[in-house]
Structures are given as C-alpha cells and as structure tokens.
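New here. Invent one.

***
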Amino acid sequence: MHAEELPVDETIVRRLLREQFPRWAGLPLERVPSDGTVNAIFRLGDALAVRAPFVPREAGIRRQAEWTPVLAPALPVRVPAVRGVGTPTGEYPSDWLVVDWLPGRTPAPGEALADPDAVTDGLVAFCRALWRQDATGAPEAHRRGTLEREDAAVRAALAAIHEVDTHAVLRLWERAVAAPWDGATVWVHDDLLPANLLVDDAGRLAGVIDFAPGTADPATVLLAAWNVLPASHRERYREGLGLDEAARDRGIGWSILQASVALPYYRDIAPGMTRMAVHALRELVASAG
C-alpha cells in the first residue's frame, strides 16, 4: 500500500508480545479487517487489541501513548485506553501499542444511521470536551496549519480525479482557502471518518478509535459532517460545536484535502478508503448545489 511499508503480520506481532509483554503472549490473536491505511489492528483475546503501524515513523502512536491517559478521563465517549507501549526491534522498527478493544461497529460511508441525532450529539459532546482541555505543551495534529499550504497538493490530486465534478470541488476549495481563521488551535481528533467511529446496537456513538490527538484548527472536526452525518444533521453538528460560517468553509476545505489526496493514491489498492473519499466528495458537491 505504501512505498516503505513495514512488514507486520500475526507472526511478527506474536513475537513482539512474547518479547515485550509475555503476560499477553498466549492470548488468541487475529488481524481485524479495516479500512485504515496507517495501522494494522489485531484483536488480542476478548478485551485487548494491538495497534501496529505499517507506515514508518508514524507519530500518531506516540501521541496516543502519551496523551490518551491525560485526555480520556474528561471525554464523554470512550477511546481505547493504552495498556502497553511497545518499542522498536530489529525486526519491526516502530513503536506499537496494546490498547483496549472497544465494542461496537464502524458505520459504512453513506450508511443511514439508525439514530443520527445521537451520533451527532455524541460527536458534539466529544469534540467540545476535548476542546476544553488545557493544550499547554500539546503536539500538533496531523492536519495542522493553514489550508493554503496544501493548495498545490489538492490541485494536483483533483487533476487525477474523474469520479466527481472537480470544477465544483475546486470552487469549494478556493472558498475554503479564502475563509478567515485567527490561528487559534484546540485539541482535536482530526480524522473523524467512519472507520474511526463505533456505534452500538441502538445506533448511538459508542467509541472513537484511532485516537492520536493534537492541536489544530477546530474546523478539522467537521470532517465528520460530510463523511459520517446525513445532510439533515450537518448544521446541527456545526451549531452544536459553536462554529461560524467561516469555520464551516474551512471544514469543507479540510474534508476536500483528506478526500481528494486519498482518492487517487488509494484508488487501486484500498477499496474502503476509496469509497470513503468518493462519498465525501460527492456529498460536498451536492451540498454546494
């Protein structure tokens, strides 16, 4: 999937567990199918999971290990507690984690949510609780800085996309880049995609995974508006967060950045990510019409 992808499979993970966490080495271990493109996930027994990057130098693992214990107690929605921090070896040169396995399932892109009110309000509560936490000494998120610095990457990606009206996307992107921002940052989960959310049997938000927090423009959390929520609930989400129209435009920009760069890169190698990107771009174009 990636040019310098790390080898990681059940045999390697089992060996890492025996060497570093022998108390868990005898538990059943099974790789979990996932639309994620950065980490391999393995279920470990009934209550744990192993999160092992197949992207070299993945900084999110270190942010998750350091900051989950600090932030998780204040959050109204569960994130995986970190139970063990694995260190690089000669065979597997990356940090890795043992975390809690959270119950629930990830919604599919465009899925009709059973309880969109509950998911929307759960996301609002999660984001606002995160924003209230002291960000002194906090690391930057993966999606950080301004949209303007991503302009060349987005334009190049749009030139390679045929699945949507890229002229309409470009108009949205240019408005987003021009939207004002005072530079104030807050704690965010900047990857609120369907693959990183869990819903329970009643359709409520049960968990948020891939929790690698950092500071960024608060508008980055609006990825969920076009990737997860139905059109009927996007304003409810934005207003619940207290974000103004300029932030909405920047949120459109962050959504375009994520989806447009992902689509040509993953089109032939990651069907799940491709579906998410196409869905988001189509929703963005439809919302502009």
Q: What stands out?
A: The longest strand covers residues 39-44.
